[in-house]
Amino acid sequence: MAARAPHHSSKKLVPSNSSLAPRALISLLCAISLYFCFSLFRRDAPPPPLLFHPAVPAKSSGSCNYSEGCWIYDQSIRSPPRYDHTCKEIFKGWNCIAGNKSNAVDILRWRWKPRGCDMPPFDPWRFLEQFRDTSIGFVGDSLNRNMFVSLFCALRKVSAELKKWRPAGADRGFTFLKYNLTIAYHQTNLLARYGEHHSHTDTLLKTGSEVFLFLASRSRELMIHVIILTMKNSCSFILLYIIGILESLGYKDGYRIDVDVPDGSWAAAPHFHDILIFNTGHWWWAPSKFDPVKTPMLFFEKGVPVTPPLTPNAGLDMVLRHMIHACDVNGHLYRALEGSKFQILEITRMSEFRADAHPSTAGGKRHDDCMHWCLPGLTDTWNDLFIAHLNNIKVRN
């Protein structure tokens, strides 16, 4: 997860032109996509306290690395610490208490303890006061909405004077009027611009990037089904993956992604918000969207497509075996962003230990939801780290 530091003298947190550097964006997408894979694991019984050391320590002299620590089971925690299940913004499928998930209350008894220091307890009053006249934007998919709702419900409990609106084209947003603090959620499946592409009438071609991704799928829901890198000025032939076979075909209709152009759903956000929080890039498949037997998925290993195509389960096993490379990818990302206004909030490994905190079938779902998180729940701790991180930035500045 990446957040932009507060900057009150100007609302522009990225260069005034609306484009992003391709290398930074691709690295960001790849790295953040890895941090969602942990949601594929779950256990019914709470795990014992666990310690871990981040692969790339963010600790500096005189500061605390809140991402390094352990979970401690605390029987004394009897109720949600900052809001309850009656907050109306909580999506039904995430409301584990109202959905009668068997361990919904037990989830809240786990407390995160940073190693070698203490994390300041969340104080909604102090947060509202500290970030008066500030705007915070969450940009990404439903997992970022998970975090957005957690923060909103915590602040809503202590400050009820609200304006509900859609700042900078957001999917939803609220301003806490007494403090002029705005938080908003910009929904997008990809950070980069994407849309239908037709070889004979491609309007994107005139304004897009020199290098773009082309997707053979006709359904926007299948965006990760096939991704082919091609050049704008040499697209007479490309490789397409169709019904499990790699073929050399003429230029076809489909979807394209301009990797250095922001998606329209959040293009205006950097000029409005003081702080931006990004997440995107996890991958999925849904039988309701396509038939994985008739149209197998294409998996890659070390940049090379795996043929013949693997079944979804076999592909997932392969991905999990190679997750160790996530450490290397994260290391490159940390180094690439050193000295920039982008800050990395490391929440991946602390979340890997909390498979018990997924909604599962709460809320009447017919299948296990092992991607999102119960609210109240683990996402509240994400916000604890986020706020502590912001405070450290303010102190350094």
TrEMBL record:
It comes from the Eukaryota. One of its GO terms (molecular function) is O-acetyltransferase activity. The keyword Zinc does not apply. One of its GO terms (cellular component) is membrane. It is a single-pass membrane protein. It is found in: Membrane. The keyword Metal-binding does not apply. It holds the Pfam family PC-Esterase. Residues 119-201, 253-329, 338-388 form the Trichome birefringence-like C-terminal domain. The chain crosses the membrane at residues 20-41, 222-246. Residues 63-118 form the Trichome birefringence-like N-terminal domain. InterPro entries: TBL, TBL_C, TBL_N. Keywords: Membrane, Signal-anchor, Transmembrane, Transmembrane helix. Belongs to the PC-esterase family. TBL subfamily. PANTHER family: PROTEIN TRICHOME BIREFRINGENCE-LIKE 13, PROTEIN TRICHOME BIREFRINGENCE-LIKE 9-RELATED. This is Trichome birefringence-like N-terminal domain-containing protein. It comes from Salvia splendens (Scarlet sage).
